[in-house]
Amino acid sequence: MRLRPNSLIPPEYNAYYLHGEDEDAIFEAAEALLAAGDKQAHRLRVDINELARIEEASRNQGLFGPSTCYALIRNAQSANPKQTDHLLRLSNAVLDDNRLIICAPGIDWKKALNKKMKAQSDVAECEFGKPDESSFARWLESEISKAGLDVKQDALLWMAESLCGMRLAARQMIERLSWYDNGRGAEIGADVVAELLGERAPGALDEWCHAVAMREARAVGLARHLLRNQQVAEVQMISWLGTRMQQLLMYRWFASQGDRNPLMAAKVFGDARSKVGAESKAWAGAELSLAVKRIVDAEKLIKGASVEDNITVIERLTLDLIEQGRLSV
Q: Looking at the DSSP assignment, which residues form a beta bridge with residue 200?
């Protein structure tokens, strides 16, 4: 059965197949389906090569066993023929009160899995098409309103144009705007949005991000140059660096899953497309997760959670990221 994206919640079916070009919207809907329902349910997030984990949760007593269980499969578009057959069997064996959510962003419409899943009468199918700018702008305006922010209309439209389709990046941007506003409720114009999105930035800012991503010692000198000589706002440096490290993290994940185009899947754009591959080799996966958390913590300090000088916060952040072993301390 075919459903519209706005009719997925509240959940009414045991199995869902989510596909289409809007990857962020697919995963947002999938997480909402996973979260809804029994608070005590066992929740699983698995990749296509981990289907056995779903069956293990059943303890050989049906698909999920006697306890309520919800499972989310993140990358069904990568399924080989054997995994496709396995997935079809699972989708037809979901017991009452349990839930199976199958995500296949960017799947080829001719692929066997896509055709067979759409033909399943007991599987709720929903396609997320590529978002147009106007619908994305409406979604963005709604999210900004929920965050209690007052963003000028021209700035909002500019954000929608710059971030169209990238819901995760938009949510991160809204979070940065919230830290900037700090509960004042002040009107936020295009000048602030441009600073946080990095549209107004010296070339040395991208060079600094690259040096940090490559874990090079020269990153410390570049940070000092940006802060002391070019007077770049600390929040802009955090915004750029946070985006780059998120891109590295997602690139590594998609590459490890055998994605045919991890750069596109990770939404790497601009000059970063020629650098992220080399930068990712400087990090272990666990280190990247710690790096992203460390950047978030530094952003909080800059927004008033510390009495330390902001320049000191940025310089210490740079050292923590480029020196081996400091992130685990």
A: none
The CA-atom distances, in angstroms, between 290 and each of 24, 231, 237 are 23, 28, 18
**Tokens 């954000």 -> residue:** 159
Q: Is the pLDDT of residue 317 over 90?
A: yes
Query: Helix or strand or coil: residue 302?
Result: helix
**Cβ 322 vs Cβ 219: under 8 Å:** yes
CB count in 10 Å sphere of residue 299: 21
Which of these, 241, 269, 299, lies nearest to 162 by C-alpha position? 269
User: pLDDT tens digit string along 203-234?
Assistant: 788 899 999 999 999 999 999 988 888 778 78
Q: Are residues 279 and 163 in the same domain?
A: no
User: Domain range holding 258?
Assistant: 203-328
Residues 93 and 54 in one domain: yes
d(CA 125, CA 59): 28
Angstrom distance (rounded) from CA 128 to CA 116: 18
Q: Measure the CA–CA gap between 311 and 233, rounded to whole angstroms.
A: 10
Residue with the bigger pLDDT between 264 and 44: it is 44
The answer to whether residues 138 and 168 belong to one domain is yes
- State the CATH number of the domain containing residue 21: 3.40.50.300
Q: Residue 222: which CATH number?
A: 1.20.272.10
Whether 70 and 43 have beta carbons less than 8 Å apart is answered as yes
319/222 Cα distance (integer angstroms): 12
Top-confidence residue, 72 or 307: 72
| Model confidence, pTM | 0.55
Query: Do the strands 99-105 and 69-73 form a parallel or antiparallel pair, or are they unpaired?
Result: parallel
